[in-house]
Design brief:
Layout lengths: L1 H9 L11 E2 L15 E2 L5 H11 L3 E3 L2 E3 L5 H7 L14 H11 L5 H5 L5 E5 L6 H16 L2 E6 L2 H14 L3 E2 L3 E7 H11 L13 H13 L5 H10 L1 H4 L3 E4 L7 H11 L4 E5 L21 E5 L8 H13 L17 E6 L6 H13 L8 E4 L4 E2 L6 E2 H8 L4 E3 L16 E5 L8 E6 L2 H13 L12 H17 L2 E9 L9
Parallel strand pairs: 1-2, 5-10, 5-11, 6-8, 6-9, 9-10, 12-19, 13-17, 13-18, 16-17, 18-19
Antiparallel strand pairs: 3-4, 7-8, 14-15
Helix pairs in contact: 4-6, 9-12, 16-17
């Protein structure tokens, strides 16, 4: 109820009273206990629902009339406006349907599903081979075949929103009784785990002390202060949050050892499936998912063919990787996906809304909507001005009457885009796992410089003695740039600023 009120407030509807009612889809009115209570069954009339509200919400009495008021007329006019996102239905675009078809109709070998529950599965491949989609395919097939209940974990909130949109369009449930798929961040999962075990009492300051909290949880597990019995009891008490048959880990190469150990302690390695982006590490460590288990407990699968990008894009990205000195790039173009184009635009693209309008019109001719496009921006294009931050491309587009879903700041990432007329805008740091028919990379050279400086500012380890700090930063920034370059399906736009730049690239 409080989450619902917060959602309304975030969209400008405040000063509203909310009364929660419980609808039992498998019971009739005669099956329920005597009232007053806030429950109703399948045969309850609208008049009965009003009577229930009158019993539990203390209406105002005036002579013979009883008034149930939950807000002003103006508040409800705003709430019921067709433009308000609460009552909007999520309509799939042709690209959504294509993605849904890839998930539902995928011809995955049965052996891939037979490993679920028997071995830890690691699917390896570089950006563009479709690892995230394959995880969703496996989770959906397991649900469809045996009502398996799966949890999908990633660190990326924008990717969580994107996958939740796909699951909403597919109508996949996440109930204990009927199985399904739930998608969340690893931070949220570990927070709930620690709260459920009584290690933390609330979430105040949890993310700020996340690293220390993880180490504390792991110490409790290793010392048996938190035993296997405690975890089993937690799963029994809160099955909605913790009763999962299989846990799918996206971007597994970014998981530190302590998170891997925690997840295995709760579910065991045989119930874990990992998508490993090989060398596209983000969170400062390279995960070892093979450590601590035998070869018989591990099933590794390698993907090399590009399934997202058209052939021309895949060839361009391969040449780009070679020019950056990434000699181990092994992504194979898909010969069945001909075409693709690359556009390089120099100068300030932020104010050139005509470029976006042209790209959007070209995509529309092929049946695509603005939500099928993706724009990536560096942190320098995010403005923290007043109560609500915004990105300069989003502001420029909005001033021209163009709809945007600006996920360049954290609050918007909680909810997936519901309007197919809105362009998705994310920071480069959050573009992992996403895709778009057309991808616009704003300030691409600024992004490279940002990653170069970021790596230079980090401490170096003993293994770095045979490479200079500048060489290490150059490779770090170069590998990072491959991530947004592999997000596009048909058209890749690279915006290069005309500002003075670092010459190290």
């Amino acid at each position: 109820m409080f989450e619902f009120k917060r959602y309304l407030a975030d969209h400008g509807v405040e000063r509203i009273y909310v009364q929660d009612l419980i609808f039992f889809s498998g019971l009739r009115e005669g099956d329920l206990p005597h009232r007053p209570h806030n429950c109703f069954g399948v045969d309850a009339s609208f008049e009965r629902v009003l009577n229930i509200l009158g019993q539990v919400s203390a209406p105002l009495h005036h002579k013979r009339d009883a008034l149930i008021s939950f807000g002003s007329d103006e508040t409800f006019a705003a709430l019921l406006d067709p433009a308000f996102p609460l009552l909007q239905s999520v309509e799939p675009t042709p690209l959504d349907r294509r993605r849904m078809d890839r998930i539902i109709k995928a011809s995955l070998p049965e052996a891939w599903l037979d490993d679920l529950g028997n071995r830890q599965v690691v699917i390896r491949g570089r950006g563009g081979v479709g690892k995230t989609v394959i995880l969703l395919q496996m989770a959906y097939r397991a649900f469809d075949r045996a009502r398996i209940r799966s949890l999908m974990l990633t660190y990326n909130k924008v990717l969580v929103a994107d996958m939740r949109r796909t699951m909403a369009l597919l109508g996949v449930p996440r109930s204990v009784e009927n199985g399904g798929i739930s998608i969340d961040t690893v931070h949220a999962f570990i927070g709930r785990l620690m709260h459920g075990l009584g290690i933390i009492q609330d979430y105040a300051g949890f993310l700020e002390a996340y690293e220390q909290k993880k180490d504390l949880l792991l110490e409790y597990m290793r010392s048996q202060a938190v035993s296997a019995g405690d975890i089993a009891e937690l799963v029994k008490r809160h099955p909605t949050d913790f009763l999962w048959d299989t846990v799918f880990v996206d971007e597994g190469q970014d998981w530190p050892t302590n998170e891997i150990e925690i997840l295995r302690a709760v579910y065991g390695p045989e119930h874990i499936v990992v998508a490993d982006g090989v060398d596209q590490f983000i969170r400062g460590s390279i995960a070892d998912w093979s450590g601590g288990i035998t070869r018989e407990q591990l099933r590794a699968r390698r993907l090399a063919r590009c399934l997202r990008m058209k052939a021309n894009l895949a060839l361009f990205v391969a040449d780009f990787a070679a020019a950056l000195g990434l000699v181990d790039w092994d992504l194979e173009p898909n010969p069945d996906a001909n075409g693709g184009r690359v556009m390089v635009i120099e100068g300030d693209l932020t104010g050139r809304t005509d470029v976006y309008s042209k790209l959007c019109a070209e995509a529309a001719k092929l049946g695509n909507y603005p939500v099928d496009l993706l724009a990536c921006i560096p942190p320098a294009l995010v403005v923290h001005d007043g109560r609500e931050p915004f990105s300069t491309p989003a502001r420029a587009l909005a001033e021209q009457g163009i709809k945007v879903w600006d996920a360049s700041f954290i609050d918007v990432r909680e909810n997936f885009p519901t309007d197919r007329e809105a362009l998705r805008i994310v920071q480069y740091d959050s573009c992992r796992g996403l895709e778009g028919w057309t991808v616009i990379n704003y300030g691409f050279d600024e992004f490279w410089d940002y990653k170069y400086r970021q790596r230079l500012a980090l401490p170096r380890g003993m293994d770095d003695l045979f490479i200079t700090a500048e060489e290490e930063a150059r490779e770090f920034a170069s590998r990072w740039t491959m991530i947004p370059l592999t997000r596009a399906m048909d058209t890749l736009v690279i915006n290069i600023s005309n500002k003075p730049r670092l010459r190290t690239c």
